[in-house]
From TrEMBL:
Catalyzes the reversible oxidative deamination of glutamate to alpha-ketoglutarate and ammonia. This is Leucine dehydrogenase. The active site is at 80 (proton donor/acceptor). GO terms for biological process: amino acid metabolic process. It comes from the Bacteria. Residues 149-350 form the Glutamate/phenylalanine/leucine/valine/L-tryptophan dehydrogenase C-terminal domain. SMART domains: ELFV_dehydrog. Keywords: NAD, Nucleotide-binding, Oxidoreductase. One of its GO terms (molecular function) is oxidoreductase activity, acting on the CH-NH2 group of donors, NAD or NADP as acceptor. PANTHER family: LEUCINE DEHYDROGENASE, VALINE DEHYDROGENASE.
Length: 350
């Protein structure tokens, strides 16, 4: 399978294939760039239809991690791992031990973490074989007490901070009292974001494909439930995508009325050109990989052992980074996505 001529190859430093006959492990680790430090990124398990799909995913995702970590001011490079397999039926202790050995073989150039299809339990198994794993430990929680390695509370806090910055920039408002926010997806990140917005006095509209998640937001936070497609056209101040990717597309853009799009979901734009359409519509878009970096910051602190106060202060830098992106975008007439990429490249010294 060609790597150097692959459309998603972007000067990746290392792309390594790993196999273990006994456990059936088939995995790829890609290190995109390590100028700022060891490459950190999640280990995804997915039933890829073929090796090329897995390669494409690992090339794109590892590159994205370089940009995300640089924007988050972390001394980390970008990397990612993919395991070809079904996370519902294909998991075993032996598989993740072998994956741990694979990660260890790179000697710390790549540090792994949980991602789609993997979680704290799998990180704990890998940690039996390698030190280069994050999210297997118990640590101090943002809100006090102890917690496991789940980074979603930090992601939600970063999105909350990012919404504050976007609302100040676009709407000139310093506080969120009475702010109208529509949230698509009230799972781990979306619900915790909703809770913080509610505490700050915002009014909430929510949707989710899981009815119980909607009910929880309605009952616990007084949110208004709306149908899935209705979430885009609401007359609100902020649309916060917190479900899946590619939800900003031609069709949803036509319905979208919010002057701010700021949420936790990864890869929100169906294609990069939509950033320009958003700009022309005077809709301020907070680039997803800038606003949802709370999770990677959390993972970094889980490894480096910083305190909850240090973690919180670092997550709050997301606000300053976004403000810088918004101001530069205004001054240059470029999209927030172009500016975010530029800023990241300045930081990792492309
Ligand atoms: P989650 O699975 O807990 O929550 C996602 C929610 O969206 C679920 O409740 C799901 O039912 C709902 N959903 C799915 N499709 C939907 C649709 N079409 N319409 C409405 N709701 C829908 O996941 P999460 O951890 O909260 O992550 C949410 C998003 O944030 C994902 O895109 C994820 O990649 C991204 N993200 C998460 C983290 C993190 O720390 N968890 C970090 C960075 C980015």
């Amino acid at each position: 399978m060609p790597v150097f001529s692959h459309i998603d190859f972007d000067h990746h430093e290392q792309v390594v294939y790993g196999h273990d006959k006994a456990s059936g492990l088939k995995a790829i680790i890609a290190i995109h760039n390590s100028n700022l430090g060891p490459a950190l990124g999640g280990c995804r398990m997915w039933p890829y239809a073929n090796d090329d799909e897995a390669l494409r995913d690992v090339l794109r995702l590892s590159r994205g991690m370089t940009y995300k970590s640089a924007l988050a001011n972390l001394p980390l490079g970008g990397g990612k791992a993919v395991i070809i397999g079904d996370p519902h039926s294909g998991k075993s202790t032996a598989l993740f031990q072998a994956m741990g050995d694979f990660v260890e073989s790179l000697g710390g150039r790549y540090i792994t973490a949980a991602d789609s299809g993997t979680g704290v339990a799998e990180m704990q198994i890998m940690a039996e074989r390698t030190r280069h794993v994050s999210g297997a430990e118990m640590r101090e929680a943002l809100a006090g007490g102890k917690r496991n390695g789940d980074p979603s509370p930090s992601t939600a806090y970063g999105v909350f901070i990012g919404i504050q910055a976007a609302v100040k920039h676009r709407l000139g408002r310093d506080d969120l009292r009475g702010l109208k926010v529509a949230i698509q997806g009230v799972g781990q990140v979306g619900f915790d974001l909703a809770r913080q917005l509610k505490q700050a006095g915002a009014e909430l509209w929510v949707t989710d494909i899981v009815e119980a998640n909607v009910r929880r937001a309605v009952e616990q936070l007084g949110a208004t439930a709306v149908k899935q497609q209705a979430i885009f056209g609401l007359d609100v101040d902020v649309f916060a995508p917190c479900a899946m990717g590619a939800i900003i597309n031609q069709q949803t853009l036509e319905a979208l009325r919010a002057p701010v799009v700021a949420g936790g979901a990864n890869n929100q734009l169906a294609d990069a050109s939509l950033a320009e359409t958003l700009r022309c519509n005077e809709c301020l878009y907070a680039p997803d990989y800038a606003i949802n970096a709370g999770g990677i910051i959390d993972v970094y602190y889980g490894r480096s052992g910083g305190s909850a106060a240090q973690l919180k202060a670092h997550i709050e830098e997301i606000g300053a980074t976004l403000t810088q992106i918004f101001q530069r975008a205004d001054a240059s007439g470029k999209t927030t996505v172009e500016i975010a990429d530029q800023l990241a490249e300045e930081r990792f010294a492309r």
